[in-house]
Amino acid sequence: MKDSFKGNIHKIRLEDSLLLHDVLDFVRKTFMQSTAQDYEERGIETFLDFIRVENSSKQMRSGRFSMWYFRMAGEIRGMIGVRERKHVSLLFVDEDFRGRGIARSLFTRAMLEEVPGEEITVHSSPYAVLVYQALGFEVLEEEKVEDGIRYIPMCYKGKR
Question: What CATH number is given to the structural domain containing 78?
């Protein structure tokens, strides 16, 4: 899928272990730059453990987790991960490329390819609530903390 700024979105396949490593390294770097400051050490450790290649590979092998990445000029500029075909568990865009529709393109692609229904949930970081609201998500509850991770439960009940 091409977007207006000449990037490509691709689904990550399990056999692409080097690519999986690169995408998760992108997630780690982006998280540390823009989100980690909102978390205590325990939350940072929990998140970094969640995105370990071994954990993501295991989830992908089980068929419970899918990921797409956005590449522009040879570089990874964004990614989305969907768990259980109904929950966005990761959505990251390079800080220098935000506001260009990359998150929306990734979300739309994941919805079209992976989500069978019209409802999808996310546990948004405090940092990303406005991004998810721009995509059509609504806040369900107040902020929660679990294993040191701060999040706001949100739900998308849009039409395709």
Answer: 3.40.630.30
